[in-house]
Specification:
Largest sheet: 6 strands, mixed, barrel
Shape: globular
Strand order of the largest sheet: 1-3-2-6-5-4
Number of strands: 6
Order of helices and strands: EHEEHEEE
Helix content: 10-25%
Number of helices: 2
Radius of gyration: 14 Å
């Protein structure tokens, strides 16, 4: 498995209008899922597109660094929501990998 770095920022506001403003400013809204909880965050659109172009897979480990927060750590991409016509990334769900806990993922062969 490969490991890459990704910077994120915690998001305090939620909602449809906030998400639209973030996308216009070059950020992608997302969630970090861990231990039955969810933390809203944003990542840079250009940074994430570089990861996708570099062959990001569901089994790829990402070192997520959340600014001004301790919620980061090693994560995998659980889900990517795209706009149906343009293919633009609208939302990302990250799942925190916890040592000692089993995670079921699809690994391409």
């Amino acid at each position: 498995m490969s490991e890459v770095q990704l910077a994120a920022t915690a998001k305090s506001e939620t909602g449809k209008n906030v998400a639209a403003r973030l996308r216009r400013s070059g950020r992608i809204p997302g969630n970090l899922l861990a231990g039955g909880k969810s933390w809203p965050l944003t990542v840079g659109q250009a940074e994430f597109q570089k990861l996708l172009a570099g062959g990001l897979r569901q089994s790829s480990l990402i070192q997520l660094d959340v600014a001004d927060s301790s919620e980061g750590g090693k994560v995998i991409v659980k889900d990517i929501q795209r706009e149906p016509v343009t293919g633009q990334v609208l939302h990302i769900d990250f799942y925190r990998v916890t040592p000692g806990h089993k995670v079921r993922i699809v690994v391409p062969v």
